[in-house]
Amino acid sequence: MIYKQGFDFSFDENACEKCGGKCCIGESGNIFANKDELEAIAKFLNLNFEDFKQGFLRKIGLKYSFQEVRFEEGFACIFFDQNRRKCSIYELRPSQCRTFPFWEYFKKNKKELQKECIGVCF
Fold it and tell me: Which InterPro entries match (predicted)?
């Protein structure tokens, strides 16, 4: 069980095995990563940064977001393994993904969080 100061819920990371990747799929959104995170993923994929940008990223203002692909009735992160229903770069996932579900947004949107994550315990 994971607890984070300032949050009135905890997270059971073992629930991820049963979840099917609900945090990686759904409505379209942005999945931001910083330069170091992006460079590490490009290296892991054995791609130079330009090729990685072309194949996996989209520019949003001054930042980069992972591309999305159509999946089921919505979208999935381009790094979501649709067959295994897991993140294909889990060990290198960006901080936006690493900090889920402990986002400030969910402090006030608990019903939405309950729908999105079966590992949250109130």
Answer: Puta_zinc/iron-chelating_dom (IPR005358)
